[in-house]
Amino acid sequence: MSTLPTLNGPSVPPASGGAPKSLVILLHGYGSNGADLIGLVPHWQHAFPDTLFISPNAPQVLPGMFDAYQWWPITNMDAQARINGAREAAPVVNAFIDQQLAKYGLTEDRLALVGFSQGTMMALQVGLRRSPQVAGILGYSGMLVDETGLDTAKVNPPVLLVHGDADPMVPVAALHHAGATLQGLGFQVGGHVSPGLGHSIDLDGLQMGGNFLHKFLA
Q1: Which of 97, 116, 139, 169 is 20–30 Å from 201 (CA)?
Q2: How far apart are CA 44 and CA 207, in angstroms?
Q3: Which fold has domain 11-217?
Q4: How confident is the model at residue 154 (pLDDT cuts 50, 70, 90)?
Q5: Is the peptide bond before 195 cis (omega within 30 degrees of 0)?
């Protein structure tokens, strides 16, 4: 039996200085790393003094690049390749979640997943299927890769999807498709489109994301 890769990356402890009462796991995009997405934390930390933020590096290093990681290789834009990649990476993310919840004595209802781009694809892949139900999923500039089995899912975590309408990497149509699909399956989904924004996160998106997380973590 193969051993799953162990993830690691930067973290920001609770500002209160005490033991964490909630956990936010941030999943970065393709070719990035945990240090990049942990940069979101200063925008939110004041509202979550008892929350631990962790941003692990994805399990695969991009060939020939320094400090750049991927959840799965993007060799083409074939939909089935994305599905296969997300499915193969999901056990790694789930194992990391299990480890962190056990380490800090927390349960899924105190856990939120935040993703950007390929990290959003992973957050949806894992969070929409994980039982017990996670507290929420916040996804920036991503897409719903794999719809298989969601029609019989026994969990219904709240989801917020945020996207720029000028995104050249993952077109904003991905947000509309994911939102319509998930709503049609009975999931709780909110969405926000930032005018003129490319493949990035703006202050409006950060504020909306913080408000979303505050509903169930503060």
Answers
A1: 97
A2: 8
A3: Rossmann fold (3.40.50)
A4: very high
A5: no
- Residue 108 DSSP one-character state: G
pTM comes to 0.97
Query: Which tokens is 185 given?
Result: 């399956």
- Residues 55 and 35: beta-carbon distance below 8 Å: yes
Residue 2: band (very low, low, confident or very high) from pLDDT cuts 50, 70, 90: low
**Cα–Cα distances in Å, from 209 out to 8, 40, 129, 204, 215?**
24, 10, 21, 8, 10
* Length, in residues, of the chain: 218
Tokens 């990049």, residue? 36
Beta-carbon count within 10 A of 87 CB: 14
Residue type, 142: G
- Largest interatomic CA distance in the chain: 48
Cα angle value 153/129/178 (rounded, 5°) = 85
> Token digits for 89?
């990476």
Indicate the domain borders of the chain. 11-217
User: How big is the chain by its Cα radius of gyration, in Å?
Assistant: 16
Q: In what order do the strands lie in the sheet with 111-116?
A: 11-12, 51-54, 22-27, 111-116, 136-140, 159-164, 189-194
Which residue blocks in the chain are alpha helix, DSSP H? 34-37, 41-44, 79-104, 118-127, 173-184, 203-217
